[in-house]
Amino acid sequence: MNLLPDTFGICAGEIATLKIEKKLEKNATIIWFDTYAGFTQQQVLASQPYAINLAVLKPGKVTVKVIIGKNTYYDSTMVVLNRKPVLSMRDSTYCKGRTFYLDAKNPGIKYQWSTGETTQKIKIENSGIYWVKLNNNGCIQYDTVAVKFVQGATPNFGDEVSFCLSDENKVLSIKTLPNTKIQWSTGSVYPSTSVTKEGVYWVKTENKSCGEQTDSVTVKLKACDCEMLIPNSFTPNEDNRNDYFFPVLQCEYSSFKMTIKDKWDNVVFITNSVNGKWDGRFKGNLCPEEVYIYEIESVEKLSGKKNAPRIGKVSLFR
pLDDT by residue (tens digit) across 169-195? Predict the structure, then answer.
């Protein structure tokens, strides 16, 4: 009588249930025994399916003996011990623009990723939460990992930048991640450096997520026809004298943006109008007396020239 499958897979360290799927008579006596543990377990009657729970440490043969009246039947199956995949992926942060792969390891088994891919490794290009399901002949393992991509050092310049000779503050700057080492060709170790002459300036950054990066720019100084006269202080005390901060423009601009930030890098004022003026307030409230940073970006209307950002400091007094 065919009672059991030829082979029966079980995951190491787990309990599996081996069943007799065939319907037997109610007076059947069932005796289980195996070759590696020497156990016997007897069941009398009980409705089908007749089953035994297995928790084995090595492969072997399990045999069942069924007695129905004067007839005795034997059948056996070979228990195959399958390895449960071991997987531990860690949440990680990586640098944008660099190639990164998630590796489920455990070669030779089946994979199912949240992306729909079925390979051992998958290429990751976007931040998100990813999961993978591993299947080794029915032994299942899951793991989930959070991946975050961050921007490395971001300069405010391209390959070349020009400053007007009359600019009060000729500054090159970069945005970086926390705990980034910075080294400019000028010797500065801060996110910004002052330009004092024409030439090639470089900056080298290094952090855990993005490793080492180097950017360089050619700086040119020239006399500008379209100059901006930018004050270095103003007194918004409502006496109708020097109550507003704004640049005096000598050209027309097709694009204009002025941003003002406090010493904690919070934006307190922003305008895209060439007639925009800051009254020393933020959301209607008076700002404290201190030094603020302005940045003016502009494109000349006549020539279409995009000027280097004008960055400087303005003191607010009352």
Answer: 899 999 998 899 999 999 999 999 999
List of domains in the chain: 7-82 (2.60.40.2470), 92-150 (2.60.40.10), 154-222 (2.60.40.10), 228-316 (2.60.40)
Entry pTM? 0.51
Spell out, as residue ranges, where the chain has pLDDT lower than 50: 37-49
How many C-beta neighbours within 10 Å does residue 21 have? 12
